[in-house]
Amino acid sequence: MAGRVGCRSSLLLLLLLLHVTVNVRQAGGEQQPHFLHQQRALNMSVQRGSTAYLHCRVADLQDQSVSWYRKRGDEIQLITFDFQTYHNDDRFALSYEQPHNWRLRIRYVQERDEGSYRCQVGTHPPLALTVRLQVVEAAVHILDERGVMLREKFYRVGSTIELQCRVADVPTATTLQLAWYRNRHRLNYDDVRGGVSVKTELRGSLARSWLRVGNAIRQDSGSYSCNVTGLAAASVTVHVVPDEYPAAIQRGVRSADQWRGVPLLLASLAFTLIHTLPHALSCCILAHR
């Protein structure tokens, strides 16, 4: 009986030792600083003039330091060391985010800020994460149902207003917030006007949004704009006219290309009037006498 108890005790002790050994080994592995990013090289694009956050998530840092550097060719420039900033441009600063994100903040991003940034942990050997920053400027355009860029559009009373907003070069670090407005009044699904629908999609760096206003009335005329928060905006003038204005409806569209010749046409008309009007007036006066 005593032999069985001793055997069980020895077995329990052996299991306990194995459990402790496994936990110690696991703890030792977890205590080593490591990045919480799947890749050691990240690409990031931001809108010019916005605020960029370059993320560097480090787990189990212990007493190790974290630094941000910028690399330009063979030149390496220290930006931050732990919580201290050493850059002479106050747009750069560490913006620590709990629990372990040593992110670098760059305000009012400019084209000159493009390049490679390095987040480094002071282990031996050092751990390094590279972020390649690209600065872009999104382009916003409004098109009709045929895909023609617009500045002005005519619709019949009772027809459907169909406009498409196209946003190219959307930054990867942007949470897209797109809204349609008519004369500074935001158009929503629950708008009192009714018959308004909006569909928006984002695919890679291209965003598109479709606005439909059913059974158009004269009061739907105005300036329609597509606003992308923090990026840019575009607008188009919409005219809703009765059927007794067929010429305007047939003309229908004023595209961006069609407007290019307008200043030249006006200048030509002005030149003609300046040179012919005095002669015409003098002829009229002589005839009247």
UniProtKB/TrEMBL annotation:
Q: Does the keyword Signal apply?
A: yes
Concerning CDD domains, the annotation shows:
Ig (cd00096), IgV (cd00099)
Q: Which UniProt keywords apply?
A: Signal
Listed under GO biological process in this entry are: synapse organization
One GO cellular-component annotation of the UniProt record comes to: neuron projection membrane
Q: Which residues are listed as membrane-spanning?
A: none
What residues does the Ig-like domain cover?
33-121, 125-237
PROSITE patterns, sorted:
IG_LIKE (PS50835)
Q: Which Pfam families match?
A: I-set (PF07679), V-set (PF07686)
Any keyword Signal? yes
Q: Which SUPFAM superfamilies match?
A: Immunoglobulin
The UniProt entry, under InterPro entries, shows: Ig-like_dom, Ig-like_dom_sf, Ig-like_fold, Ig_I-set, Ig_sub, Ig_sub2, Ig_V-set, Zig-8
Q: Which residues does UniProt assign to the signal peptide?
A: 1-27
Q: Which domain of life is it from?
A: Eukaryota
What name goes with this protein? Ig-like domain-containing protein
Q: Which organism's genome codes for this protein?
A: Scylla paramamosain
